[in-house]
Design a protein that fits this description.
Layout (H helix, E strand, L loop, with lengths): L25 E9 L2 E6 L3 E6 L13 E7 L2 E6 L1 H4 L12 E7 L2 E7 L1 E9 L14 E7 L2 E6 L1 H6 L8 H6 L6
């Protein structure tokens, strides 16, 4: 753990912004676990990873928002990742981690069971089959006998809304968030 309380991640060299889908290019994903399943976010979306802290309620927030935290003077909304991913709900535990991630117009907190570090993989150009695609998946990446569900951060945070018309952004309006 770094002196600021965040967990240090190995950050392999990136190709471009880490979001390319050109076959043969590479992407770096931050890996984490929710309910024994591996998920990932592009490293370019992740600011840092810290230990979980108490979450305070945010009045008039969308149902997928657990509340807010104060991180060094920044008020950040906490997204209920378990609700979004349709995983069993549970309270945040002291041993859990928070992934601080930059979505359009807002930085958010994603509670996860454990952060696993980062992994550089060759870009996979095929998106998941539309019939089986979860609305929050960017793609599915094979990892040997397992798979990594690569998440679409913007859709997790805003759902089908645009960032400009988001109920979350409206709930945060007037608060000092950055």
């Amino acid at each position: 753990m770094q002196s600021d309380g965040s967990l240090g991640l190995a950050e392999p060299a990136l190709t471009g912004n880490g979001a390319e889908d050109t076959p043969g290019s590479s992407e770096t994903w931050v890996l984490f676990v929710v309910d024994e399943q591996k998920y990932g976010l592009l490293i370019s979306e992740v600011e840092r990873i810290v230990r979980a802290v108490e979450v305070k309620p945010l009045p008039q927030s969308p149902p997928h928002v657990l509340g807010i935290i104060n991180m060094q003077g920044r008020i950040l909304p906490v997204i209920d990742l378990r609700r979004c991913l349709q995983r069993p709900l549970r309270d945040i535990q002291p041993e859990d981690h928070f992934i601080i991630a930059a979505a359009p117009m807002v930085t958010v907190v994603l509670p996860v069971d454990a952060a696993l570090g980062s992994l550089q993989v060759v870009a996979v150009s095929a998106a998941p089959d539309e019939r089986t695609r979860d609305r929050y998946l960017r793609k599915i990446i094979p990892l040997g006998p397992e798979v990594l569900y690569a998440l679409d951060l913007e859709r997790l945070v805003f759902g089908d809304e645009t960032p400009e018309d988001s109920a979350l952004v409206s709930a945060l309006a007037g608060m000092e968030t950055e």
